[in-house]
Amino acid sequence: xxxxxxxxxxxxxxxxxxxxxxxxxxxxxxxxxxxxxxxxxxxxxxxxxxxxxxxxxxxxxxxxxxxxxxxxxxxxxxxxxxxxxxxxxxxxxxxxxxxxxxx
Length: 103
What we know:
By secondary structure, this protein is mostly helical. It has two domains: 1-42; 44-103. It is 94% helix and 0% strand. It is built from three helices and no strands. It has helices spanning 2-25, 27-41, 45-102. It is elongated and about 95 Å long. It starts with a helix and ends with a helix.
């Protein structure tokens, strides 16, 4: 197993060395291509910021409306749950009273 690990390490070092050598030899070409891509993209930073703000506002509005919708839903559910619990409590008290009377 040590031999396989050593071979893998040496092979990885060779591939890394070749890639580094290629990048070093062709760095000017790589930089020129990167600059060419940047020129072709033409990002307008103000437009990107405005789009991001609009999307954030839309998301915030959506989250707030969802929260408000569930807040109202929870209050009605709490009332329903409370009424259900009270009915259950009354039934349990009746059963307890019947159990005490039987004993």
